[in-house]
Amino acid sequence: MTTADDRPPAFPRGINLHGDDPQAMRRQLRAYFTSTFDRYESLFETLACDAAYYEHAIPLRHPLIFYFGHTATFFVNKLLLTHLIDERLDPRIESVFAVGVDEMSWDDLNEERYDWPSVAEVKAYRGKVRAMVTRLIDEAPLSLPIDWNHPWWAIVMGIEHERIHLETSSVLIRQHKLAYVKPHPHWRPCTEAGAAPDNSLVKIPAGSIVLGKDKSSPRYGWDNEYGRHEADVAAFQASRLLVSNQEFLAFVEAGGYSHPGYWEDEGKEWLDFTHAEHPSFWVPASNGWRLRLMTEEIPMPWNWPVETNYHEAKAFCRWKAASSGQPVRLPTEDEWQRLLDHAGQREVADRADHANLQLTHFASSCPVDRFAHGDFFDLTGNVWQWTETPIYPFEGFDVHPIYDDFTTPTFDGRHNLMKGGSWISCGNEAEPESRYAFRRHFFQHAGFRYVVSKELKHVPGSHYETDKLLSEYAEFHYGDSYFDVPNFPKALVDLAIGALGDTPRRKALDLGCASGRATFELARHFDLVTGIDFSARFIGQGVALARGESLRYTLVDEGELVQYKSRSLADLDLQDTAGKVEFFQGDACNLKPQFTDYDFIMAANLIDRLYQPARFLESVHERLNLGGMLMIASPYTWLTEHTPRADWLGGFKKDGENFGTLDGLKAVLGAHFEPVGEPCDVPFVIRETRHKFQHTLSEATFWKRVR
Questions:
Q1: Over the stretch 18-75, which tens digit does the pLDDT of each residue have?
Q2: DSSP 3-state assignment of 233?
Q3: pLDDT tens column, 421-451
Q4: pLDDT by residue (tens digit) across 249-302?
Q5: Phi and psi of 105, rounded to 5°?
Q6: What kind and span of H or E run contains 536?
Q7: Which among 408, 440, 553, 555 could disulfide-bond with 465, CB atoms 3.0 to 4.6 Å apart, if both were Cys?
C-alpha cells in the first residue's frame, strides 16, 4: 500500500515569468528547480546497481551515466554564456557530459573515447550544481519580467532541459535490462487494465488555426515555438481514442510487420535492421503477451494505448486504409491543433485532474477511455501522438543565442513532430504550443491516433538553407570570391602549408572551423583533419558535404529578393578529402581530452570570440606534438559581448603604453612556443547583400611548440 510518505511531492507545472515581485519569483523558481532536480535524481534511483549506469540501454544513445551528469553540466555551460557565473565547477566533467542527445554526426558515441566518472563523483558534482543554482536564485540580481533576452532565461532553460531528459531517460530505463532496474515508490504505474473499448470516428469541420508565440509571452518556450503559422484545415474525421494495444493487435496478427506494402522505404530499412515483429515494449510469453514498463513487466493491459515509433504507426494506418477502404493516415500538426480547438481543450495542461500528464497520476500509461476531452479522450497526456509533420521553422523563427542547436539540427526532414505529451511530460513539454520532434525510428512514450482525410498538405519549408547567417557563411566558405579577394579559409591553408615546410603532416586540428572549408583544404595535405566548432549549426554544413550532399542556400540580393546557390565538394575539387575529415561540436576553452597529438592546429578568427582566450592559449600546447605548429589568425575585434573586458588579450593601455593582441599572444604563448616568421594580414570579404559586403583583415601568426 502506498502511504502519504511514499508518494512524491506535488510537481510544479510551468511558471508565469512575468510579475512585479522579485522575491515571489525567486521562491517560485527555487521550488521549480529543486523539485525538478529531486525528481530527476529519484528517477535514477530505479537503477538497481552501478553497472546499470554504464551499460548501454540501446546502442544509439550514451549509457545512463551520461544523462545523469549531462543535465547538471548544462546549467554550468549556459550560465557561463549569460555571465551569471564566470568559473566552471569541474572542467573535466563538464567536457565529458557536454553534448550527446540525438544521433548527430558530430555526437561521438565511441565509448573508447570516454573515461566516465564514477556514480559517486557525478552525484557529488550534481550537489555542487544544486548549491550553485539555488545560490544564484536566492542572491543574484533579478529584474522582472524574465524574458527571452534576460540572463535568468538560462536558469529556466536548464530546468526545462532537465524535464525533457526526465522523460527521455525514463525511456532508456524502460529499454534497459530488467535485472538493472527496480521498483520505486515515486514511480508506481497504473494498475487499471481490461478489455479495450471499440474505437470510432468523430467528424471535425473545416477551420483555421494560428500558431506561434511571441517573445512577450509570460511562459518559457523553446526557439521552435516562436514566430507565426496560419493555416486553413479542411474537414476530416479523427479517432475518438488513441489506438489501444488491443486495436493494434489486429495489425500484428494480420502479419502487418511482414507485409512490405504497409511500410515506406525508411520503415523497411528499420525493419531489416531490427527484425521487429511486434511493438518494442511488447514481450511474448508462454501465457500470452506482457508489457514492459519502466521497472517491471505486467500482463498486457489491452485497454492502454499502444506505444510505437513513427514507422509502426504509419504502417498500421496503411493497413487500416487497405482493410477499410478509407484514406486513413496519421494527423498533421495542424490537424492535431484543430482537434484541440474543436474540443475546447487548449488549457488542459493547467488542469491537474484532467489528463494523464505532468506526473499527476501514474508512472505509466493508463486506459484509453479514462480521461475525456470533449468528444475525444487523451487529446493530451497518456502517450505522445505521432504526426505526419516533419518539424520546420515558423515564419520569424530565430535561434536563442545560448542554445543555437536545440532545434536547427532537426530541420532535416527526418524528425517528425509528436504532440500532446505523455504521463511524464511536464512543464513546457505539457503545453499545447510545444513542438518536440524525434527521429522516426526512435521510441518515446509515444503512440498515435488516426484520421480519415484525402487531403495531406505538405509542411512549409525550403530545400534551401534560408537562415541569413548560415547562408552568408556557406558563401564565405564555399561560394564566389568578391573584389578579387581570394577565398579566406583556402588562403589561410595555403599560407600554413608554406610555413610548415617539411614538418610531419599526420593530424591537423581546425579549431573554430565554422562551416568547414579549411578542414577540407587541410585534408589535401594531412592524413586526418578534425574540425571543431562551438556551433552545431555551422558544423552541419561540413557534415553534409562530407556525406556527399550538396550545400544549398539562398543569398539575399535586396529586400525579399534572393538567389539560390548550390555547392558540393566536387565543385571545389575537394571530393577526395571527405574520408579524411571528422567534425565535432566543442568548446575551445574546454576541449574533451581525446583531441590531442596534432602536428598542426589552426585557430582562425577564434580568439577574439572566446570567453576565456588566455585559458585556451595556456593549454593549447597539450593538444600539439612537440615541434608542431600553431596558426592564429584574427582581426582582434574585442567585444564584451563575447569576451569580458578583463579577459581581453590586448587592445588596451598597459602601464601607460599601448598593449596590442600580438603582445598578449607573446606573453601567454612564450611559455611553450616560439614565433615563426613575421605576422601578415590576410583579407576576407563576407557578402551580406548584393550591394553590402564586409571587408576585414585578419592577422596571421605562426608559433612552434618548443617546450
A1: 989 999 999 999 999 999 999 999 999 999 999 999 999 998 789 999 999 999 999 9
A2: strand
A3: 999 999 999 999 999 999 999 999 999 999 9
A4: 999 999 999 999 999 999 999 999 999 999 999 999 999 999 999 999 999 999
A5: -65, -25
A6: helix 536-546
A7: 553
Percent helix, strand, coil in the chain (nearest 5)?
Answer: 35, 20, 45
- Calculate Rg over the CA atoms of the chain: 27
Cis preceding linkage at 145, omega within 30: yes
The DSSP bridge pattern shows strands 528-533 and 507-511 to be parallel
| 229: helix, strand or coil | strand
Alpha helix positions (H), 45-87: 51-54, 64-81
What's 614-683 look like in SS3? HHHHHHHHHHEEEEEEEEEEECCCCCCCCCCHHHCCCCEEECCEEECHHHHHHHHHCCCEEEEEEEEEEE
Work out the burial of residue 558: count CB atoms within 10 Å of its CB; fewer than 13 is exposed, 13-18 middle, 19 or more buried. exposed
> What is the CB neighbour count within 10 angstroms for residue 141?
9
Secondary structure of residue 417 in the 3-state scheme: strand
Greatest Cα pair distance in the chain: 87
C-alpha cell at position 332? 498533421
Residue 126 sits at the vertex; the CA angle it makes with 443 and 43, to the nearest 5 degrees, is: 35
Residue appearing with cell numbers 499545447: 432
User: What separation in angstroms does the CA of 162 have from each of 35, 38, 210, 425, 595?
Assistant: 11, 11, 29, 11, 28
Q: Locate 706 and state its grid cell.
A: 618548443
At 530, which amino acid appears?
Answer: T
Measured at the CA of 559, the angle between CA 553 and CA 561, to 5 degrees, comes to 50
H-type alpha helices, 10-118? 22-44, 51-54, 64-81, 91-96
Amino acid letter, residue 475: E
- Whole-model pTM: value is 0.87
Cβ atoms < 10 Å from Cβ of 405:
22
Between residues 465 and 616, which one has the greater pLDDT? 616
Q: Is the pLDDT of residue 686 over 70?
A: yes
Round to whole Å and give the CA distance between 321 and 251: 12
- The DSSP string of 293-307 is -SS-EEE--TTSBP-
**Burial (Cβ within 10 Å: 0-12, 13-18, ≥19) of residue 227:** middle
Ramachandran area for residue 210 (φ above 0: left; ψ -120 to 50: alpha; else beta): beta
Contact 475, 565 (CB under 8 A): yes
Q: Which residue has the cell 572551423?
A: 513
Say how many Å lie between the first and final Cα of the chain, rounded: 68
- Angle CA 413–418–423, to nearest 5: 155
- Which cell numbers in the block locate residue 180? 538493472
